[in-house]
Amino acid sequence: MAPVFAVFYRSLLGWRPFAFMYYLRALEMPLQLACFGAGLAAMASVVGNQSYASYIYPGLIVLYLWFAVIMEATYVTFTKAFYHRIWSAILATPITLPQILLGEQLLALMKALTLTLLFWPVGVYFNLVANFQDFLFILIPLSIMILCLCSFGYLLCSLAKNEYDFDPLWPLLSTPMMLTSGIFYPVSTFPEWVQHVVWISPLYHGVEIIRPVLQGIYDWPVIVGHSLVLMAMWLAFSSLAYYQFKRRFQE
Description:
Layout: H1 2-15, H2 19-24, H3 28-38, H4 40-43, E1 46-47, E2 50-51, H5 52-83, H6 86-91, H7 97-117, H8 119-125, H9 132-159, H10 169-180, H11 192-197, H12 202-213, H13 220-250
Antiparallel strand pairs: 1-2
Helix pairs in contact: 1-7, 3-5, 5-7, 5-9, 5-12, 7-9, 9-12, 9-13, 12-13
């Protein structure tokens, strides 16, 4: 594991100057909760048996993690791997490509989880979290989701020829996932075919796990089922990204 942590530490040192801007996005959530609470909540004050602010809070956590992780795994990783050729320099040492990918994913996980912890006081202020133990528990399934999103970003990065290849990601994937994954309104409001298609969205599985948990409800079949789907996605995306990166570095 020493090479993995070497990659982790090297990337951590390079990221330190930008840490403040990374965590600054946590300040957006209270603004959004306040605005949604005053705006949309006036039209839909209750969803099921909970307030609208309480409903969207878990979804916003997942959404912020998506934006944080996918930006790092695509644009930032592409710059390091192909523009600055940092990965090529590391591969000239005994460190292998799987160790690089694992080390980078470890850093992405650390950054995303610490960002998640900043959302705890926001939930407390708006009275949206039952207790701190529930919030700590969601870090477990969120870790799987973060790794899944990271590996998906690496797959896109491994296929991209330049940074402009990431532009279709936002209108073709990010926006549809944001609108259909149960973040702002229940998936049950969509046509039945959308309710089936949304299963390919990692955001949907993340929201389905953490929303009831933050209300103190532990539905273990739901938690385990969605976690297994996320884990399968993570392994599939990681394998595909590895083979594509390997092919490119051997060219």
